[in-house]
Design a protein that fits this description.
The chain is an all-alpha fold and about 150 residues long. It has one domain. The chain contains five helices and no strands. Helix 1 packs parallel to helix 3, helix 1 packs parallel to helix 5 and helix 3 packs antiparallel against helix 4. The longest helix is centred in the C-terminal third of the chain and has 22 residues. It is elongated and about 85 Å long. It holds the Pfam family Use1. It is a single-pass type IV membrane protein. Its main location: endoplasmic reticulum. It comes from Rhinolophus ferrumequinum.
Length: about 150
């Protein structure tokens, strides 16, 4: 059965959202959040259509939209350990969104965000900035040599 116009638009926007999620974004970037909201609305409309796709396909779309929504919520958390924990509970999509993808984009985004949160936690724990240099506010300690 041919995909409806709504389903094609949903897949197109879903691909764009996955690409945006994979990119490094500013904290004041608002587009992805609005796009994910639009995806939710489109998904609800698709579920109500008479000629809707198979339930497995709709479930996969739902999984990917829920993943993106959860990822946005995790980014709003304050500490990197909370972000990492929230990221563990996210379930990326199982099937690639387009035929060009070998690995689902949501899985790639999931791995990237896990690595980013792990790096942030490491920086917090070791007192280093993103370049790996010690933070300026950390006291410089010199080794004490005990002479006997």
């Amino acid at each position: 059965m041919a995909a409806s116009r709504l389903e094609l638009n949903l897949v197109r926007l879903l691909c764009r959202c996955e690409a945006m999620a994979a990119e490094k974004r500013d904290s004041d970037e608002w587009r992805l959040e609005k796009y994910v909201g639009a995806l939710e609305n489109m998904l609800q409309a698709l579920k109500l259509q008479a000629s809707k796709p198979a339930s497995e396909v709709i479930n996969e779309y739902s999984r990917k939209v829920d993943f993106l929504k959860g990822m946005l919520q995790a980014e709003k958390l304050t500490s990197s350990s909370e972000k990492a924990l929230a990221n563990q509970f996210l379930a990326p999509g199982r099937v690639p969104t387009t035929a060009r993808e070998r690995v689902p984009a949501t899985k790639t985004v999931h791995l990237q965000s896990r690595a980013r949160y792990t790096s942030e936690m490491r920086s917090e724990l070791l007192g280093t900035d993103s370049a790996g240099e010690p933070a300026l506010d950390v006291r410089k300690r010199i080794p004490c040599h005990i002479h006997s």
